Amino acid sequence: MRNKDSGFTLAEVMVAIVIGVISIGAAFSAYGYFNKSYDSISQKAAINNSAREALSIITKDLRNAGYMHEDFKSFGIESNHEWYLIELNQKELGNLDQLVVTQGTSPNSWIRTLYVPKEYDKCKFTTDWCNKNGNGKYLAKTVIKNPTGGGKKILYENIEFVPNIVDFQVVFKDKKGEQVYPVCGGYCSRTEVSQGAETPSNNKPNKGTLNMIKVHTAEVYLTIQSAKEVFKSNKVIKIINDENGINGNTQNFNDKYHRETFFVSVHTRNLAKHIAISEQIGTSVGTTASYNK
């Protein structure tokens, strides 16, 4: 009986190789596409998470701005604590702002929180954007206990609160919706000084200090940029924050990075109330006619 050896012909082998190569190429192409999509989505998600968490904390601080425990002044912690309720330094780093919020958390202590834009130190946190566009910026946070009285203690200083920021704008408005400026006490920058603010002296408040209790709402604009390139080609992006305000900021970009602006408007419930409203553990500042109703 005669045996036959079965096998593939050369043509069949070639067809199989071609199909295999096409399949492998398609798999790598799909992997690259989905990997790129994942990077893009994760970058955008990181921006959203960072901004929402940051604005949530800033909102809480703004709502507590000016709060002083009912026994605070009787302890003699700070005779002029009303000079340090809420402060704004415009154009602190380029066109970015600095926000300072003060509150009394207990009868014998008060807390000052500073949100300050900073530049990364020689690209310590290396990213594509940092390598191509300089150091980059972040929003730093500092918290100080008893900042002007005895027992001053820095709880933490210049921690990286929000990475890769592009813009940080804060706008104070009064009850009528008109912008309030200057608003500052011990942290008056050149811009506020040019608007009429000075450092308080001889127990006399300045224009910036007197404007603190007029702040009815605080509008915060926070623009964050992705740490890595997201788009395949350059995109022209124009960012306008507080377009019609005195402290507005406009920036133009032409690159592959994703940027997104987040906004919150906060009612400063403890500031523009001139009637001292008793609460369970404290009061808001002020003693005269109601302003914030």
Stretches where pLDDT is under 50 for at least 5 consecutive residues are 274-293
Q: Enumerate the strands of the largest sheet in spatial order, edge to edge or round the barrel.
A: 2-3-4-5-6
Instruction: Note the total helix count.
Output: 4
Write the element-wise H/E pattern from the N-terminal end onward: HEEEEHEEEHHEEEEE
The tally of strands reads: 12
What percentage of amino acids are in beta strands? 25-35%
Shape: elongated
The percent of residues in helical segments reads 10-25%
How does the helix and strand content classify structurally?
alpha+beta
**How big is the Rg?**
28 Å
Distance between the termini: 109 Å
* Main sheet: strands, sense, barrel: 5 strands, antiparallel
The average pLDDT value, as a whole number, equals 79
